[in-house]
Structure formats: C-alpha cells, structure tokens
Design brief:
The chain is mainly α. It is globular, with a radius of gyration of 15 Å. Helix 1 runs antiparallel to helix 5, helix 2 packs antiparallel against helix 6 and helix 3 packs antiparallel against helix 5. It is built from seven helices and no strands. Helix content is 65%, strand content 0%.
Amino acid sequence: MADAIHAIARQVRPHTAVLLAGADDPHAELLTLVWGPQFDREYALALWASFSQQQPVEAVPLLPELLSVGARFDALGREDQQRLRRLIVRHGAFATRAEAERGGSPDPAPGRPKPDQPPRGAATRAAAERGGHDLPVRMNR
C-alpha cells in the first residue's frame, strides 16, 4: 500500500500550491481533508469553490483530480490512512523547520495541530460533529 500513499502524494502535490495558496497552514488544511475515516469532500469542494472564484479557468481541471484523490484515500485501509496523516504532519514539521532556518518564526503556524491532536478549524469542527474523529492518530511509529 505504500505505493498507493505515494500515488496520492504525487497526485495532490502539484495542486496544493494553488488550492491552498491563501491558507495560513496548508498542512493543517490537508489534515482536515483526511482526518476522518473518509475524505472530506464537502470541505474539498469548499476549497475548490473558493479557488474557482479567483481563477475559474485553472480550477476546471482541478475538480476531477480532487475527487480522484478522495476516492483513492477512501480506498486505503485504516493503517495506510494513518500513515498518510503522519506523512502530512512530518512534512509540515520539515516546512516549519525550514522556515525557521530561513529566518522565519520557529513556532508552528497559528492553528497547526500538535502531533497528537486533530487539525483545528471550522472544517474540523464540522467533521467532528459528523462523527469524523473516530480514528485516533498515532504520529510516532
């Protein structure tokens, strides 16, 4: 299944820069999409709608890709979903460290979850209300 996780990462990587351009913490946004047992399509569509208002032509081919990522995530087993979450958290930590080395703030971005906490935000609260937090996330192997 490692190939499936890497395929998702490769598929989403080119689109995250444009889709999450206005986000304070893109990694927390990604975690929000994959925090529950299923990909949060409602939140993904909200992100896409916001982007499509700014750049409608560029947004058109992104929608099928986004839905495809959701289908791939949903097809993963629980352990592989957890591994993908850990990958996002780890990548976020590397990004924070790199920012600190470039002279930016050494503190995590506002809203960045601690490794043992769910991402924060309106989308996460909505997912919790829908019962999306039924899987504990272990960030350490």
